[in-house]
């Protein structure tokens, strides 16, 4: 018996559309914040404003989460061993 491990095409399209809408909404929110505040502030100011805007729109988010990153050995980066 063959078992399909792929996501059905219709579901994949719906997921892609939802992701596009979410990104477009966040993009619009960011530029709204930037247009209101202008340039020149520290990143933390924009981060706080973005967190407020996301919360007002009832969008779930987490701030400053740890993200695992892998990279080449230290010798390739010129870092001390």
Computed over alpha carbons, the radius of gyration is: 20 Å
- General shape: extended
Number of helices: 3
* Class of secondary structure makeup: mainly alpha
Structural write-up:
- By secondary structure, the protein is an all-alpha fold.
- 58% of the residues lie in helices and 0% in strands.
- The chain has one domain.
- It has helices spanning 9-37, 43-56, 74-77.
- Helix 1 (9-37) crosses helix 2.
- The protein is extended and about 50 Å long.
- The model has no long low-confidence stretch (mean pLDDT 82).
Task: Outline the fold blueprint.
Elements: H1 9-37, H2 43-56, H3 74-77
Give me some keywords for this one.
extended, mainly alpha, 58% helix, 81 residues, 3 helices
Q: What is the compact description of this entry?
A:
The chain has 81 residues and is mostly helical.
């Amino acid at each position: 018996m063959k078992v399909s491990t792929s996501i059905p095409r219709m579901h994949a399209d719906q997921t892609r559309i939802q992701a596009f809408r979410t990104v477009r909404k966040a993009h619009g929110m960011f530029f709204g914040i930037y247009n209101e505040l202008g340039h020149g502030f520290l990143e933390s100011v924009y981060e706080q404003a973005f967190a407020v805007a996301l919360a007002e729109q009832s969008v779930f988010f987490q701030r400053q989460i740890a993200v695992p990153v892998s990279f080449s050995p230290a010798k390739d980066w010129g870092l001390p061993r």
